[in-house]
Amino acid sequence: MIFKLVLASAISLFLLLGTSLAQNEDANCQGLPDGATLRAKLIVAPNIPASDPSGIGGDVGGLFGGTRMWVAVVNRAGHLCGFVTSTADPSQVWPGSQAIAKAKAYTANAFSLDSFALSTARLYTFTQPGHSLWSLGQSNPFNPVFLSATGGGTGGNGQITGGLIFFGGGVPIYANGGTKIVGGLGISGDTSCADHEIAKRVRHLLGMNPSGGPKIDDIQYSASDGPSVFTHPQCLNVKRNGVTIGTGTEANASGY
Asked: How many separate domains does the chain show?
């Protein structure tokens, strides 16, 4: 009887350890940028000149020119691997943008593949009433348990925070020359249009573009690109790759 109890306890311990190791392995963030690297790229991103060979530089637009941002990164399994603000004082970035950045990173990773990069900006029209993905956001709500106090904390690192966001600011990130998706990157803290501009630039500065380059999943506007299910509304003071788009009003819908 004692032997059976010992054996049962040993088996239970083995299974518990196996589960723990598997969870740690799933939460592997190797090869993804840490907080210090993310902050450094966030600070540089708004200042990429229009003359940069990437073609994604110039004025960011928005309310703050992309200088007050939260950034978050998830791995391919969806686990949060890091988040930080562009400012030394996190309270000088909208507190509400922490959850949005984490959800954008999760969304961009969740709906992209090795050969199919899909920014959150391109999901906007699909998820509006009357379109094919309406109510998609209800499928995986963000878990506020994984928010961090403004002053610091782990804030869900190593956990799947969830959340689905369907406006600009989230992009998938890649390795192996852009052929292998390894996670998602989310930016929030300005207009959704400016968020996308910074997300695109940070991904480029990290060297984690998809194989099609930094613009393959770029934000599209009906004012300049014509009606499409992939278009996004214009924001206040909207710029794309340093170029002013349309009139820059929130009232300008996707046009499709």
From this structure: 2
